[in-house]
Write a structure and sequence with these properties.
This protein is of the alpha/beta class. The longest helix has 10 residues. It has a 16-stranded mixed beta sheet that branches. It is built from 6 helices and 16 strands.
């Protein structure tokens, strides 16, 4: 049984946020000031994902001027088209879009837009699905073209209590969709929404190209604070090494799980008995402040 990625891959961890907004759409701060906040907080990179639709003038926000030797940016946008259920449009994050990416149009639906963004080279994420009640059926229609589901969106959590995307990630995993997951802050800087959700990407260098390739390959984990050092899956158990935690959970198919509770856990081995019948599992670590870290789903069965 393997050591999970990214802990088995070479390179260094780079902290980044891949969903944030500026005053080029509905954020409060200009791009330069938004980038400054992430850089000052110790991030290695950010993807500005301003809303890309006619009401905001469409163009992908160009952040290339803010790159230097210690910090970089990845171009991106939050994409919208009318959705098939309800009244709100689809919300997709495209990280790594080209500057000349053609705007979405009303003739497209979510799957068509996700497919076009992926073919343009983007890492495609299902943004805050619980915020607008995206159905599992709709999620499944997008899954062939998406890379990941947003497991946590801090802005949606503090404003609407709808920041958790686990229902979508696990529901699609149960249906056989092999997707990654990521956390973000979706900062608009109009509320205290900055920070509190990011990715730790393992890559050989801090370049947009290397980081984007690592995201697509799943060489990262997500966090609100806890650090993950190793996850090793063996026949009898899953051994997790992390910063001090109060619980470590292996989440599996349906109601299947295995869990360890203790004060100050830094290493534990979860029994495989609770998840042995699951085709997949993912690890969730929670610290004493209630902050979580998440691995991507790992598939145990072919």
């Amino acid at each position: 049984m393997p050591v999970l990625s990214p802990f088995s891959s070479s390179g260094h961890f780079f902290k980044g946020n891949i969903h944030a907004h500026t005053n080029r759409s509905d954020g409060a701060l200009p791009p330069a000031e938004t980038v400054r906040h992430y850089k000052a907080a110790g991030y290695d990179f950010v993807a500005i994902t301003d809303h890309y639709n006619e009401s905001f003038g469409c163009p992908v926000t160009d952040t290339r001027a803010f790159r230097d030797e210690s910090f970089t940016t990845i171009l991106g946008a939050e994409l919208h088209v009318p959705r098939s259920e309800g009244k709100l449009p689809w919300h997709l994050v495209g990280v790594g879009l080209p500057l000349d990416f053609p705007p979405p149009c009303n003739e497209e639906d979510g799957p068509a837009l996700a497919k076009r963004a992926r073919e343009a080279g983007a890492f495609v994420g299902m943004a805050h699905p619980s915020w607008y009640q995206l159905s599992l059926a709709e999620g499944e229609s997008v899954a062939p073209y998406a890379h990941a589901v947003e497991i946590y969106n801090h802005g949606c959590q503090i404003i609407h209590d709808k920041g958790d995307g686990a229902y979508m990630l696990d529901g699609l995993s149960d249906r056989g969709c092999r997707l990654l997951t990521y956390a973000c802050d979706d900062a608009h800087f109009r509320q205290p929404d900055f920070g509190h959700g990011w990715v730790e990407v393992k890559a050989g260098e801090r370049s947009p190209e290397a980081l984007l390739a690592a995201l697509k390959a799943g060489h990262y984990y997500s966090s609100q604070g806890p650090e993950l050092f190793s996850v090793v899956i063996e026949n009898d158990g899953v051994t997790v090494e992390c910063s001090p935690a109060e619980s470590v959970i292996a989440v599996g198919y349906g109601k299947l799980y295995s869990v360890c509770f203790d004060a100050g856990i830094t290493r534990c081995t979860l029994s495989m008995d609770g998840v042995r019948q699951s085709p997949w599992l993912r690890i969730v670590v929670t610290d004493q402040k209630g902050r979580r870290a998440w691995t991507n789903p790992h598939w145990l069965a072919g």
